[in-house]
Design brief:
Oligomer: single chain
Helix content: 25-40%
Number of domains: 3
Number of helices: 18
CATH class of the largest domain: Alpha Beta
CATH architecture of the largest domain: 3-Layer(aba) Sandwich
């Protein structure tokens, strides 16, 4: 299913990257190159301008005739893995896709000099996210995919921001809400466990298949974590959301990320505050809440032409250099990975990024995670909220362990089975509706009662590793429908058939 480039191509790339970055190679790089670049929609125009600037400023005689396409970081990785040869020459992706892209042969290794430059100039955590073994396979693009706490300074005194208990008391006294996704997102739930030293690390084999997990959520420290979580979930002024617009409807605290800054600033104005997540107390000991952290990376696709490969690496290094990252911050407020940019007064003055960088001291890099984990861990919050005693809290952890174990006990039939999931039929993206193969490559659900505006997807193996379509299917009108998936082994097309 995967179209992986040959060993010969890899050897050519090694030669190209050894040449890339050396003065002796400069004269060999002159020429015009037709390339395709995949970036997020928000930076398409900026990237076009940056490539024009590179064409005008480089001294190697390199000219890129670039087609810049809007392909999101998640979609880019999926498309590259499916068909490397048809993918963008340069593309951006989220760090949690890194290992899969390396294993698929979709990323060209950086040369020695380029790697040295990248390591010296960028945040060590982002460099680590782009490293496999001793080698760098991607260029740091951002260091801002994490979460922290926004708060309303008219409700929350600055001296209370470091204490969960004081924050809850302030919200309750003011009749305002503390908003954090503890029942709807495993990404946020993990912060309680990371705060008490728990780990959840997945291991893959050389083909990228998940073979084991080192997980200590169900442990004495995990029990401490859910006791802390329970304090918030038991408050009448807690809601499970990460929507910055919540400040417009009664919130005093919202846990979310930099992407919500403009929304929050527009509502709170001078009352906008931002800080790292707080500490919580259990049995007389304090634990600082942790978090996931992530980044965006830029990759170069392996090339058959060594000169073209070296030129592409020159461009990628330019786009992700100090000037390029600062331009993206100024244009769309993406948090830079470049150390000099992080120290820039304008970046430091951004209260959201300042809070994120503060929280990153307590964060855990988001690595490769089995797609089913997000649904499994999400349930912890609901179980904790329903628990009435410590035995109930322990049962929440036991339920989690049982669900994790089941991932490794799935039959081949279960791993390959397709299902429909969504906010449909009274469910909230927490129930899989089975599909049956009615003819080769064609899968259908039973008749489902759907309502206008509801959204759904099809996924394989009750996991998010393989799912279609890229954007949710939105139901246009109330009715009875059969959900149909046509899957050719690489791409799936989803449609609704009147039932």
């Amino acid at each position: 299913m995967k179209k992986v480039l040959s060993l010969t191509l890899a050897l050519v790339m090694i030669f190209a990257l050894c040449v890339s970055g050396t003065a002796s190679a400069a004269s060999q790089l002159a020429g015009t190159y037709d390339i395709t670049v995949w970036v997020a929609d928000a930076i398409v125009d900026l990237t076009k301008q940056q490539i024009e600037d590179f064409n005008a400023s480089n001294t190697d005689g390199i000219v890129f005739n670039a087609t810049v396409e809007a392909v999101g970081e998640g979609d880019a990785a999926t498309q590259m893995i499916t068909d490397v040869e048809a993918g963008g020459d340069i593309f951006c992706f989220a760090q949690d896709q890194f290992a899969r892209l390396v294993q698929a042969g979709a990323l060209a290794k950086l040369g020695v000099k380029a790697a040295e430059t990248v390591r010296a100039a960028n945040d060590a955590g982002v460099v680590a996210a782009a490293t496999m073994g001793e080698d760098l396979f991607a260029y740091p693009l951002t260091s801002d995919n994490g979460y922290f706490m926004y708060y309303d300074k008219s409700v929350i005194p600055e001296e209370d921001v470091g204490s969960l208990e004081k924050l809850i008391a302030d919200c309750e006294a003011a009749g305002k809400y503390f908003s954090m996704e503890n029942e709807t997102s495993a990404w946020y739930i993990a912060s309680w466990f990371f705060g008490t030293g728990c780990k959840s690390e997945w291991e893959t084999d050389s083909d990228g298949s998940f073979i084991s997990i080192r997980d200590t959520f169900n442990s004495p420290n995990g029990l401490i974590a859910v006791k802390g979580m329970k304090k918030l979930l038991d408050s009448h002024y807690y809601i499970s959301s990460s929507d910055g617009a919540g400040f417009d409807s009664g919130c005093a605290v919202v846990v979310t990320g930099t992407w919500a800054y403009e929304t929050v600033a527009g509502i709170l104005g001078d009352n906008l505050g931002a800080a790292a997540l707080p500490s919580f107390e259990v049995d007389g000991q304090e634990y600082h809440m942790g978090s996931f952290n992530g980044c965006k990376l830029m990759g170069v696709k392996p090339q058959t032409d060594a000169t073209r490969a070296a030129a592409l690496h020159r461009l990628a290094q330019y786009l992700t250099g100090e000037e390029g990252q600062l331009e993206r911050f100024n244009a769309v407020k993406w948090g830079p990975a470049n150390l000099a940019d992080q120290a820039n007064p304008d970046v430091q003055a951004n209260v959201a990024l300042a809070a994120l960088f503060q929280q990153n001291q307590y964060s855990v890099p988001q690595g490769q995670i089995h797609g089913s984990w997000w649904d499994i861990a999400k349930v912890i919050g609901t179980d904790v909220k329903e628990a009435t005693d410590e035995a109930g809290l322990q049962q929440a952890l036991d339920n989690y362990t049982a669900a994790i174990s089941a991932v490794f006990n799935m039959s081949d039939e279960e791993k390959n089975a397709w299902s429909v999931i969504g906010g449909i039929c009274g469910t909230m993206w927490d129930t899989d509706f089975p599909m049956t193969e009615v003819e080769p490559g064609v899968f259908q659900s039973e008749v489902l009662e759907l309502k206008a505006g509801e959204e759904l997807k099809c996924r394989q193996g009750a996991s998010w590793d393989v799912n279609f379509p890229a954007d949710n299917v939105v139901v246009e009108a109330d009715g009875s429908f059969i959900v149909q998936l046509v899957f050719d082994g690489e791409v799936g097309e989803v449609s609704l058939i009147a039932g």
